[in-house]
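Quick question about two entries, pasted in order.
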Amino acid sequence: MEFTASHARANGFTYAGVLIAVALVGLSLAVTGEVWQTTVQREKERELLFVGDEIRRAITQYYESTPGTGKQFPKSLDDLLRDSRYPTTRRYLRKVYLDPLTGRREWGLVKGPGDGIMGVYSLSRKTPLKRVNFPHEYASFNNAESFAAWQFAYTGASAPAVIPTAAGASAPAPGVPQPLAAPIPASSVVGQPSFTPPPPESSGALRR
């Protein structure tokens, strides 16, 4: 009888130990998964900052290179790949990148005069993890509650003072910049295969 009771107690301790071990493993996996997701999003945000800045620079070059006196923004992102306003090929962007956060070819578009494209923003509905320490040209990104506020748009001295918003758009939330135009359908924006982010040193001041 004594042996049976001791054996039962030993089995009870073993079972409790197994339960504790399983709980610890589950907790460890949950923490690891959360850290991994955070790491992945931070990397995608760094990629978005690089890609968005590349598109903004290309739009600026296209606008400033307009022949004649009347400046023009591109009508589509494809115009940045080949400027048809010149007899010889002029390229301001090597490809139209995918949105790193959504993985899709569709971008939100910041519209300017003549329905031209002044800039782009991600259509992701997530809240950015990066909150501060943006370069001066992207100071408006600080403490943004949505990636819609990360607008990579032309900011030259001759930029239009007023940019038309989408018809019927709701009033902007206090302190949160809103998309300045409705996104165009995905079929209107042509993208390329997934972008490979540059080495850390290529991102420069854009990194947190």
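Here is the second entry:
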Amino acid sequence: MKTILVSNDDGIHSPGIHALAEILSELGRVYVVAPDRERNASGHALTLHKPLRVEEIKKDFFSVNGTPTDCVNWGALKLCKKKPDLLVSGINKGGNLGDDVTYSGTVSAAFEGTLLKIQSIAVSQIGGPLYHFDAAAKVVLPLARMVLKKGLPRDILLNVNVPNLPFEEIGDFEMVPLGRRVYLDNDIIEKKDPRGKKYYWIGGTQIHWEKKVNTDYHAITKNRVAVTPLHLDLTHYSFLEKMKSWKKDLNKTT
């Protein structure tokens, strides 16, 4: 029997993770390990300065007072008797398109799974406040089955964004690169609390996207499922070769 680890950054009580766990049970035994509360935009943070507390919510469902990365580590290395065959993170409330992947706890959970040599998928659903999580879960099932059958290359994970629509209205899968977003009012908003002390909100509420076709954002605007393979190796190899020409001048300064 296949072993499947499921996590997220919306917390153990999010309906998205329960819809995902239920449908993935068709493929094997599912273990759910998720934060005890929302950990949105937590990135790839790992808790090193305090102990982790784990609580079993029900059979095979566990909450952790830590980040999505903590959850994947504990689930894969402590809970599961063997390395999971698949890790799926989500279903996130809201998209993780383009640059969002660098902030996303959902995507970072899948990154951590990939670092642990587990085939990993991150799943997000666009829209809200109401979501069609059951529809998104149905979309994920054949993709998860395909990954279990064919596998993923080393250091590759899949980032999946699903339109927030009934299942019958969701279009085909599109294999696309990440898009790029542009904040028109990226700013730090300063306010005062009732005691007169300053506090700040990170702004940037007006979001526009670069007008490029064949990106994850473009696929979503067409009500299609955007699937993007992400690579752990962030090295830009072509520029690395160009930078080697800097060595002579740089070394003169040392």
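Reply: The longest strand covers residues 28-35. The chain has one domain: 2-179+211-252. Hope that helps.
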